[in-house]
Amino acid sequence: MVVGIDTELASLAIDNDPVNQPDQPVFEVKEISGKGKGLIARCDILQGARILCEKPLLIAHPMPLFSLEQHLAARLKELSKESQRQFLTLHNNFPGKFPFSHTFKSNALPCGPGSSTGGVYPTICRINHSCIPNSHNNWDSKSGQETIYAIKPIKTGEEITIPYNNGGTREVRQASLKQSFDFDCGCPGCSRSPSAIRESDVRRKMIQKLDDAIGDPSRMQGRPADSLKDCQSLLEVLEEEFDGFAGVLVARLYYDAFQISIAHGDQARASAFARRSYESRVICEGEDSPETQRMKLLALKPATHSSAGAFSQKWKTAITMVPKDLGGAAFQEWLWQRVSQHSCTLSDTDEDSNSSDEEADY
């Protein structure tokens, strides 16, 4: 372990938890023109502040509408009158037959990335969508709660927003939101000038293209420097598209860079990338989030990851080789040095070669 790194990581935790400041409410539920109810900031909210956490009123797994209607009706009977009222006053995008099911589908958030289980919440489900959100919603599996954190500073009177979809060009986003939620998005990202929308669409296509390339395991194995270069390029595009506040997308990107580095034995850079992923997770999900804690552990002990050295030892370094005397641009240059310093293709002989020459570079 690098002496002092755990203390440094601990100091990064953001002590700005409005939930523990009951005398300073940070939002109010208000009617918003064209959107129904939404959450409005009652005071300035700092980046990384926890805005809200809630346990779900109801949870359900995928099932046919008729079965879901029966399931929800039974669960609703078990709730208090106040909880029943909270559910029944949520917006229903598709009124008519199966009212409970359509209310649930109109409001449910997945209980974790990629989870098929959904939950509805009395207040969090009032938060409206934006393609350029200022907050991040996350399921905390440890506490069984959905949390909302500010991923950028939010001004008094500003609406609190989260994303309802997975991105894409404006046309793709609009179609997805219309089909799933029956509304036309008028967020800042969709209300840009025609020329700005075209530029945004180019960036969105590039984000998807780079993400697909980074996720290619054969490319990560045989051309890791290209994969790492794509991570650097994706970071730049994300920062531009989301005005410097790409939130959890940046955390995921740094984790990808971590995996590329550790799979080829580079513990030094893997540790630095995990630390940056941890820093981003603290902002988006808080210090206690299981994923935040996992990134913290990997920053301290990158070699514990299951893919450590799985592809080669071509880039072998020790965690103690993270430079301590570099800051700002100099550290950034060191961090991405693999992009320009190493061959993009690893041969079989490279994988078995001695790494002393590479280590001497540092």
UniProtKB/TrEMBL annotation:
Name this protein carries in UniProt: SET domain-containing protein
Organism of origin: Ampelomyces quisqualis
Domain of life: Eukaryota
PROSITE patterns, per database record: SET
Domain spans labelled SET: 25-165
